[in-house]
Amino acid sequence: AEPVADLCELGPWPSDTWFFLHLCSGPRRPGDVLENVENFGAEHGLNVVGIAVDPLAVCNVCGGIEPPSGRGDLFNANWGDWLLRLIHSGCVAGGMGSPPCSTVSAARHVPLQDSKGAPPRPLRSRTNPWYPLSYCTDSERLAVQVGSVLFLLVVGLLGEIAMKGGWVVLEHPADRGREPYPSFFCTEELKDFCQRFKLQYRIIHQCRYGAVSKKPTGLIMPPGGRKLQLHCNHTRRRKMLIGLDSCGKFRATPAAKYPPKLCEVLAEVFFDRWLAVRDHSYSRPCSPQVSCEQFESPWNGRQCITWPWPQPSPNFLAQLIETINCRKVHPSFAKPQQ
Fold first, then answer.
1. Exposed site from 43, 192, 235, 337, fewest CB < 10 Å?
2. DSSP characters for 230-272?
3. pTM of the entire predicted model
């Protein structure tokens, strides 16, 4: 097995170095969330290093920390162990998760009148969204499994950050609140996550940040951040990105990237919280939680986890990680939001 870097052996970080993780970030680009976090940190005299965790992102981390190979693949046990060690070091000030959404997209429930081929069909139910529908093909079933595992791994890692007093935000398409639209936000697993870490669910419309469509987006995050409570106020109906383009691809795919203004505001909300508590001599953005128990990580690695990660059945994550790795699925199989 490939050796995992032991952060305890790398020497102490400079006392002023912090990290911000973006899980399922997509490729780095100018003006993304991490660039804004780093820029805001520099403006306020805080050295914050952004780490993009995604197979499509190049992870260049300074401070003497060398991540394992695998290019941010969350199915890779070495990466899972490395991320847990980094988080448990106490130097992660915040994190964001943008897990893939293609298998829960509301567009799958809209008949396509102009499609020459078969339209993308629903793959999940609202009552039990973690599992594929019975009619799914092998490839569709695999896509659902990949999406479910990535979402729950992101939730688990964000919870580890929150346990250490880090600020976290989870982004996914907003819950439509009715049948037949599936959503992870309406599950007991996510309700328990919010309750444990005192997080709130809110909806924003990305058209207020420059998106070409309304794009209702759900966010789970700590209280505050009123700058994000913005709903569409346009007098003209916004463009609907539904159906397939001339190449047979989702029209919504190009809109998966966050508008630059949204990236800036997300980073600003994080720093508003952090700077407010620093004025009262607190070093971390949120209150850490003391864990009296340790649990086995879903990667069966050498690192334990500090809270029981949500999953719809015992060993759901560990079993599907093994299954997906045996299928040798490329980690970019399910594309992220950003």
1. 235
2. -----SSPPBP--SB-TTSSBTTGGGGSPPHHHHHHHHHHHHH
3. 0.87
